[in-house]
Design goal:
Helix content: 10-25%
Oligomer: single chain
Structural class: mainly beta
CATH architecture: Beta Barrel
Distance between the termini: 41 Å
Strand order of the largest sheet: 1-8-7-11-10-9-13
Strand content: 25-35%
């Protein structure tokens, strides 16, 4: 019995970006095509089958511990990006300032698609969604450098709209205009213990 369900919607790739590993910056350079391997984007800032653990998993590991890299690409929704731009007082927001890998248009409530959902492209490439990408101050600094007076509002405006991180389950190419089909896990909502809200979590 299949454990993934066709969600009945697709996202069109409207922007692609590459953050060079050697740049030392969060900023992504616009691309018309990305070649994705098991390691992610070649020579990208977040490339690699493993990575040093970061502040997001300090409850599990000492910072810098080598772990599986499930944050190879950053995917955002064009619709949610437009809301962020409006909330910080900009007509539009350059995805490159957020270090984005992929901007999709057409999947509703994209930031909250279930973890382990898959996005499949026409080349056969499959991206597995890890989880929601919580906002941090780094993109705000990049925005502030380009549009003074607007970047400081980014973190609050991006809450629940920052998109997701994902890793490459099956290699392949992505190009502007490609359509990614969404598949979600066939699983009911968890009925376990009450989970603290993010505001109640340490760190």
């Amino acid at each position: 019995m299949p454990t993934m369900i066709d969600a009945g919607c697709e996202g069109e790739v409207v922007w692609l970006g590459h953050v060079p590993a050697a740049s030392g910056s969060l900023r992504a350079e616009a691309r018309t095509r990305l070649d994705l391997g098991f390691h992610g984007v070649t020579e990208g800032r977040h490339a690699g089958e493993t990575r040093p653990s970061c502040s997001r998993v300090t409850m599990l590991y000492k910072r810098g511990t080598e772990i599986r890299n499930v944050r190879q690409v950053s995917i955002l929704s064009a619709e949610e990006l437009a809301v962020i731009a409006a909330k910080i007082g900009l007509e539009a927001l350059d995805p490159g300032l957020l270090g984005a890998s992929i901007i999709l248009r057409g999947i509703p409530d994209f930031t909250h698609v279930p973890p382990s959902s898959r996005l499949q492209g026409p080349s056969g490439v499959v991206l597995t969604i890890d989880m929601e990408n919580r906002p941090c101050v780094l993109p705000g600094r990049e925005i502030e450098a380009e549009a003074p007076g607007h970047g400081t509002a980014f973190k609050a405006a991006a809450q629940g709209r920052r998109g997701v991180t994902a890793w490459v389950e099956r290699p392949g190419a992505l190009a502007l205009g490609d359509r990614l089909r969404l598949f979600i896990p066939d699983q009911r909502a968890w009925k376990g213990a009450t989970v603290p809200s993010p505001a109640d979590q340490p760190g």
